[in-house]
Structure formats: structure tokens, C-alpha cells
Specification:
With about 160 residues, the chain is an all-alpha fold. The protein folds into 2 domains: about 80 residues, no CATH class; about 60 residues. The chain has a two-stranded parallel ribbon. Helix 2 packs antiparallel against helix 3 and helix 8 crosses helix 9. The termini are far apart.
């Protein structure tokens, strides 16, 4: 008995096949989208099962299954099937305001409590205490200063390593 995935057939029209062949051979597209286009063409041929297509396209069988599901979700709109869905990702904790404050603090010269300069830890703690960040590590402060070309080891920056 055939599984529900193998019952779903992908039937492409002439224009869609032409579009996919052109998509694969021309332009600069991501490797994933080109792989999806190849899989759609192979699924349309119907001569191979999903396992064989996965081997031919150097991917897992689950990838082929997910492509068939996505084709059904997109109601056969090939361009939508090829595109990546947006990923949420982790939002950045560094804002322009935070960068400016870190850089200004590093360049101000005198450190807190009679210290000669700010350490990365002290700068991170101050940014959190001032409410500019929920949490901030000394490593992140170091990256911000490096980006701003203000090395914490330089005397001109006003900051020192931990």
C-alpha cells in the first residue's frame, strides 16, 4: 500500500517545467533552491520514488517529503515552493544607542571608583545597570569595541582587559 506522501503527485505544466530548467541553469540562486527545483522536476517525471530522488539530489528523504508537503501547501505555485520561508532567528541585543554608549564609555578615560580605566566586565555591568541592555557579556562589549576600532588594550581607548 502506498503512503499518503507517495499518493500525492507533483504534476507540472509546460511553463513550470521550462521555468525550473531555466532556474537551474541560469542566474545566481541558492544551492537549496536549485536542489528543490531539481527535485520538483524529478518528482514530476514519476520514474523514481522519493528515496531515489533523495539519493540523486544528495539530501535526506525527509527533505523530499517536506518539498512535496510544501508544494501542496503552496497549491502548486512553483516560485513559492523554491523560496526560503523567513526564519525568526535571535534578535540582536546590540542597538546603535548601546554601541555609542559603550564606545563613549571606553573613550572617556577615567574608570569608576578610582580605577585608571574601564574593564570590559565593568562596562557590561554599567550598560545593564543603566538599562541599556537586559544582559550583556564582556565578550559582546569587546566585539563592539573591536567593530568601532577601539581596542581595549590601547591606552587611547580608556578600557582595559578584565
Amino acid at each position: 500500500m502506498l503512503s499518503s506522501m507517495e499518493k500525492r503527485k507533483i504534476q507540472l505544466g509546460g511553463e513550470e517545467k521550462l521555468f525550473l530548467r531555466h532556474y537551474i541553469s541560469k542566474g545566481s540562486h541558492s544551492a537549496r533552491s536549485i536542489r528543490r527545483a531539481r527535485m520538483l522536476l524529478l518528482l514530476d517525471e514519476g520514474s523514481k520514488n522519493q528515496k531515489q530522488i533523495a539519493l540523486d539530489c544528495n539530501c535526506s528523504e525527509g527533505t523530499v517529503t517536506n518539498l512535496v508537503k510544501r508544494y501542496a501547501e503552496c497549491k502548486g505555485l512553483v516560485k513559492q515552493v523554491l523560496e526560503e520561508k523567513p526564519r525568526s532567528g535571535q534578535p540582536t541585543i546590540i542597538t546603535a544607542e548601546l554601541e555609542a554608549n559603550i564606545t563613549a564609555l571606553a573613550c572617556c578615560g577615567k574608570g569608576p571608583d578610582g580605577r585608571s580605566s574601564w574593564t570590559l566586565d565593568l562596562m557590561a555591568d554599567k550598560m545593564v545597570k543603566d538599562g541599556l541592555a537586559v544582559h550583556l557579556s564582556y565578550e559582546t562589549v569587546g566585539k563592539v569595541l573591536k567593530k568601532a576600532n577601539s581596542s581595549p588594550g590601547l591606552k587611547s581607548s580608556g578600557a582595559s582587559l578584565r
